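WARN retry 2 of 3 for item q-0093 after timeout on previous attempt; input resubmitted unchanged.
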Amino acid sequence: MKNSIISLTILSILIFAEGAICQNTVDFFANGNEKLQQKDYKTAVQEYSKALTLEPKNADIFFNRAYCKSMYADHVGAIEDYNKALSFFPAMPNAYYNRGIEKYAIQDFKGAIYDFSIALQQDQNNSDIYFKRGLARSVLNDHFGALQDFTKTISLNPRTENIYFNRGLEKGYLKDFSGAILDYNKAIELDSNLINLFFNRGIAKARLNNHVGAIKDFDQAIKQNPSNVDIYFNRAISKSSIHANEEALKDYNKAIELDPKVASLYFSRSILKSNLKDSLGSIQDLDKAIEWDPSNTDAYFSRGLMNMGFKRFSTAINDFSKAIELNPKNAAVVYQRAMARLSLLDQTGACADLTLAKNLGSAEAAIQLTKSCK
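OK item q-0093 returned
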């Protein structure tokens, strides 16, 4: 069900039945409806406003004016008009539904859910309202509530691919990846061209460690959207998971080519390069990861470990110290800084770090402390 409007025919019926509206109001209302049909929404609003000067309590005119305001994104103005319409005639489920859509547009998701719920009290079998309420609940991380709404939508309208897609997303949020795949399968059956279907099914398969199946879905997703960084990134992760490291590297390279300012891409590629024994390349990628995200604790820690491997202990200590500054309770980083200090014969600093790491829960630090700090 799309946003509804009150037609001239309906108003005319009201006129003849009740004789409550003068002819001038009908003329303005008719002019407004004509402009609405022509999609001249701002002129339509002007005509409806003229009608309201003569009939300031007419819910139908407020309803239509709200609809027109919505069409040129005056969502606040539309809400005000729906408020007026409902104050004069509360039994208008379409007004609650439409007002819910406007509230959703201004990110008043709780208000939207309230309106959709009232609309459903008056129109209990309207699949569109359940769907829209599900979307609002999802934004507020009420994934179980969204799942219930999408399931109800499907029971009322089982032939719409978007609903299966959205329910699949909710199942993914709830870690029901097998259920999510079943919904994505149904959505693909209904429309295999829907953007993001193969990508999201690939994500669900990867979470179930079906990386071969995930790669096939990512391949299909790239055919649909060859400039999507996330697809290359996730395909790289799946390829590295099955030890297709050279192919994974190509995907990381492509993702970085498409968006060279994403720290997580460099960080992930640095891990892969390290596995490929390209230590220098790995450090270079960690440098870029830190450049684009100076608060990346893992990048400092990883670069510190790489520098330890090159016996650049002072440089490693600097990296570990920055990581500790960002996260003072990471026992593993404190322990590694202690080991770097031991390598530089800084027993005092090393013992202080080993004590701290032990207190943070590091079993390794406790053992090393007895060996190095008697």
